[in-house]
Amino acid sequence: MTKPLAIVTVTSPGLELASNLTNLISEDIDVFIPENLYKRIGLSGGKWEEKLTFFSEDLSKFLGVIFKEYRGLILIMATGIAVRALSPHLVSKYQDPAVVVVDVKGKYAISLLSGHLGGANELAYRIASLLKGEAVITTASDTQGKPSLDIVAKKLNMAVSPAKNLTSVMAAIVNGEEVDFWVEPIYEPKIKEEFAPFKFRTLTVYPSLSTNVDRAGIIVTWRRLPIPGPRWIFLRPRDIIAGIGCRKSVSHKVILKALGLTLKKAGLTFKSLKNLASVDFKAQEPGLQIVAQRLGLNLITYRPTELANCLKKHPELNHSENVSKRVGIGGVCEPASLLASGEGELLCPKMIYRGVTIALARER
To answer: What is the pLDDT of residue 143?
Structure first.
């Protein structure tokens, strides 16, 4: 699990600014300085110094060690030094942490890396505000006052798919091209405010999406649809709950297979999943835990009495006498999915595969 924030500095003026910044930032923050700096300037032994950690490697090697350990890195140093030290460790904007470079006077907070998805733009604004300095933001959508798809998607808890097409769609927006925008009716209220500059059309039947495939486009939907062209993306709302019942010791591979088959049957994708749900005595089931971990989802569980009450409230749900005899309730996956969705809509009733039952519900 990644830690929140770290400050790295290599000079005594930078260390002084780091001290001020740690007093201003409310959350816990680690501060790293080179061991030779500590030996050169000496320290007084005050309480703040307990937060300091010394490193003996060169800066680039050390940054490589902590690069994936923190959600955000604040580098108090020259931008050129930071760029050269970080360059061997960069992967992609989907994986790299937020990196903000601050000059030793605290005058500028520069969003250097992962401005949108990683949150470096937001962190730069925050630091600039604390230090009464200026945030330097260079991402094109921000400088032009246009919405950034990745950051809006993150705010609305939507997944971008395929991620490789995001850059070309954003380029079309930044370059002022007309971008097609189709939205499922139930999501229109949710995105109106965030995408105010855009004109979007209601997506009802997919064939109505006849358009020039060479144009860029966005489709907000939970449905599994063919993508119209190379400059199109789906924004997938993460609002589907998978209720799961399973026999003891069933493998995670079987659960994943069952889940994949159910999603396919319902015309959905894994990217639309928000959480998994089951009965409380399955909370420690290894297969379920592994699936939740691999998909990056929470496993929500309910007491048997809660599931039984849901079944009583919804007589249309499947009720199995065999399951009732075995575990004391007439079903797990359907009531679990409904409860975790806030009594939403059951999209796919119980499907059985090799001792695993799956049901899918969409949140209200």
So the answer is: 45
